[in-house]
Sequence to fold (191 residues):
Amino acid sequence: MTRTQQTGAFSVRPMDTDPGRKGGRSDAELVHEWVTHPRSAFWMMGGARLEDVEREYAAIASHPHHDAFIGLHEGRPAFLMERYDPTEVELAGLYEAEPGDIGMHFLVAPPETPVHGFTLAVITTVMETLFADPGVRRVVVEPDVTNSAVHALNKAVGFEVIREITKPEKQALLSACTREQFEAATTGADR
Fold:
């Protein structure tokens, strides 16, 4: 899926978990650089080694209920997207699941030069990618309660807070966005 926005063309492809990829850095090397950057503190992998990232994303690739994707901006890797079944991964037993729920994480690569509206364009692309599946009725997320930047982005694309929940690694703000809420939040906006 490719979408052109004011900030350029975005697309998403499955993450390549082959560490021996030829012709440039592997996806794991890119993701390692992104998740260990100080701006990515909420990803909780600041001290990860490349091998840790390779192992983590190989596990995701082999998991039947979790997928990872590389988001491209103008054909270049620019963000990470994860999709998961919240009844099996991350939120199992922590919330009242509804038919058609999908869970999501996203991480924007640390920019060389910040572009106004870029992160909003990324989350919009992520949501459109998820809702491209007709079986998805609602996206659920569980960001850290102190991550005010992502809470603002979530609200901008239609998420509503359900409640605070306790996860093993953090206090999270469980939030959800239906297809209709996303469309209402983004309709008419040239994002």
User: Anything to note?
Assistant: The mean pLDDT is 90.
